[in-house]
Design goal:
The structure is a single chain. The protein is an alpha+beta fold. The chain is 41% helix and 8% strand. The chain is built from 17 helices and eleven strands. It has a five-stranded antiparallel sheet with strand order 8-7-4-3-9, with no helix packed on it. The protein has a two-stranded antiparallel ribbon with strand order 1-2. A hairpin with a 5-residue loop joins strand 3 and strand 4. The protein is elongated, with a radius of gyration of 42 Å.
Length: 578
């Protein structure tokens, strides 16, 4: 049998205790429980039987209430209050507490280590609550002199330990912890009014009432059945409401009342079929508007996890549609911010590299691969020949690059312009207006969405390569463009040669001609652009390749298969549909 507590019983209420005239008298509080009948149990007498669920820690049996009370007594009498927290209590002392509990109660599940863990967790909770009560009721009391004697006699705490405990509660570091806890507690806008039995006691009470009602109904109906079906379990939103309902019928707070009204409305919708619970999104979750916190379930009681109550989560999402939509939007916003930051960083790096290499920077921000596909509607050449932007123009001939170069149209050059249809001109382009057609079928070198051949360009502004524009007063054919400087022919490094084109692709992405229907796409004009970011990824060697690069590689492999006569052997899919 366990050793009895050496703390004396609490003294009877005394009317002769005096206090300072400036301090109010001490409030009468509930005296410490002792369970004297259990402590004075004869040696060899049968121990009270208590069943403990190893998973949840819940107790069952006629002595379960006495068992919970005893755990509070052990926490108060066997654990020093000067320990900072339950983790600092020595393991040997916890083992002694466990042996003491087994000596007083017969626990068939004691051999399961989970049972010991759950019971000691409960003892730790009772110990923390005891320290909290000591702090709020006694340690911070105004009448310190009379409190010391009262607490030491009531709980059997030595004056030395009590003084040490009070000093710890007046330490600035503890004040910070206390203030943080108060802030957290203020967030609980819907407090309950349950007793120490919690939801477990409330559920037992409601189940007993339902059984009693069933028996009364069976008696009134004259039924001779000796077996009555057990009542259905109490739904947790019902327990949540009752736990916050006062004896007067009012809710404990305005926030609790709002949630209770939502619960009533959702119950009505559920009965009509307009609200259907799915997974962990039931009536209580929908009424509160927040999903369950990992580690506990609201209105169920301590020791029950989400998985134990709702079961394993299915592979399909069990989140409410509106909450899932909100979560999806948050993820999209975060991804957009992250992508914007990375693109901006890369753009600044590319601009810095171009500037260090002496390349001309674009006048306006990069417009992306589809910049050339702009609309030329309502784009007409002024008959006066004046540019609305600069007023500086002259007659010219527009050529295409052949051997020799061929004149395809006559027009007017506007040298002062830097944009065409709100799109920045490249460093080797000039703005022209087409006034006379010489070859209707000649291709437009910088096509737009509406203009692809010269015959469609009459009285339209276009971008034209500078070296293919010639004043009419000047004679002679236009020479082909001077080829770009190439590196030494002895350099045989494809990766190095590829990196030399990155600055040019920054100014204008490369559109690759391909047959999109080859990859199962219905739009045969689906464009493929290679940008400077794509080549940078290849050159880096440690990044995932973009879809455009993979498309270009597949295109190359397809052409290689065709040349080798293996087109019927190999096939490729568009990466977008994989």
């Amino acid at each position: 049998m366990a050793t009895q507590s050496n703390s004396p019983p609490p003294p009877p209420p005394s009317t002769g205790v005096t206090s300072h005239s400036s301090s109010p008298p001490l409030k009468r509080t509930r005296k410490a429980s002792r369970l004297r009948l259990l402590a004075t149990r004869p040696v060899g007498a049968e121990r009270p039987l208590v069943h403990v669920d190893p998973v949840t820690g819940k107790t069952d049996g006629p002595h379960s209430k006495k068992f919970r009370t005893y755990l509070g007594i052990v926490a108060r009498d066997k654990v020093d209050v000067t320990y900072e927290n339950w983790k600092h209590v020595p393991i040997t002392q916890k083992d002694l507490i466990w042996e003491d509990i087994q000596a007083e109660f017969d626990i068939p599940e004691a051999s399961d280590l989970r049972t010991k863990k759950k019971i000691l967790q409960t003892v730790g909770e009772r110990w923390r609550q005891f320290k909290s009560d000591l702090t709020s009721k006694w340690a911070l009391a105004a009448d310190k002199d009379s409190v010391d004697d009262t607490v030491c006699k009531m709980y059997g705490i030595s004056k030395e330990k009590w003084t040490q405990f009070c000093q710890s509660r007046r330490d600035p570091s503890w004040e910070n912890v206390r203030k943080k806890a108060q802030v957290v507690q203020k967030q609980n806008t819907a407090p309950h009014v349950m007793s120490r039995g919690g939801y477990e006691y409330l559920e037992k009470k409601l189940m007993d009432e339902k059984r009693k009602k069933k028996l009364e109904e069976a008696t009134q109906s004259g039924s001779t059945d000796t077996v009555i079906d057990p009542p259905s379990p109490i739904k947790r939103h019902v327990k949540w409401k009752l736990a916050r309902t006062k004896k007067t019928g009012d809710m404990t707070s305005e926030a609790a009342k709002e949630i209770a009204d939502k619960i009533d409305a959702l119950e009505e919708q559920a009965s009509q079929g307009s609200f259907v619970t799915h997974g962990r999104h039931d009536i209580l979750t929908a009424a509160i508007g927040r999903p369950e916190h990992p580690g506990r379930v609201r209105a169920v009681g301590a020791g029950i996890t989400i998985k134990q109550y709702f079961g394993s989560a299915s592979r399909t999402s069990s989140i409410a549609p509106e909450y899932l939509q909100q979560l999806t939007q948050q993820i999209k916003d975060q991804l957009e911010d992250s992508i914007t930051e990375k693109v901006t960083r890369r753009l600044m790096l590319s601009l810095s590299q171009m500037q260090s290499q002496g390349l001309a920077l674009p006048h306006e921000p990069d417009v992306g691969p589809l910049a050339a596909r702009v609309s030329t509607k309502e784009s007409c050449v002024d008959p006066s020949g004046n540019d609305l932007d600069t007023g500086d123009s002259y007659k010219c001939g527009l050529y295409i690059e052949e051997y020799p170069s061929r004149l395809v149209a006559l027009g007017r050059v506007y040298e002062g312009s830097t944009t065409i249809h709100n799109i920045p001109l490249l460093h080797d382009q000039v703005k022209v207006g087409v006034e006379e057609i010489r070859d209707v079928d000649a291709p437009i070198l910088v096509p737009t969405k509406e203009v692809k051949v010269v015959g469609q360009a009459l009285n339209t502004f276009l971008a034209w390569p500078t070296h293919l524009v010639k004043r009419l007063s000047e004679q002679g054919a236009v020479r082909p463009a001077k080829p770009a400087d190439r590196p030494d022919d002895e350099v045989d490094d494809p990766l190095y040669l590829m990196t030399l084109t990155i600055p040019q692709l920054f100014l204008k992405p490369l559109q690759v001609m391909w047959d999109a229907t080859l990859f199962g796409l219905f739009n045969e004009n689906f464009p493929l652009y290679i940008k400077h970011e794509d080549l940078s990824e290849i050159a880096h060697g440690g990044q995932c390749l973009s879809i455009s690069v993979i498309q270009l590689w597949i295109l190359h492999m397809t052409e290689t298969s065709m040349r080798a006569g293996n087109i019927d052997v190999y096939g490729f899919l568009e990466p977008h549909i994989v």
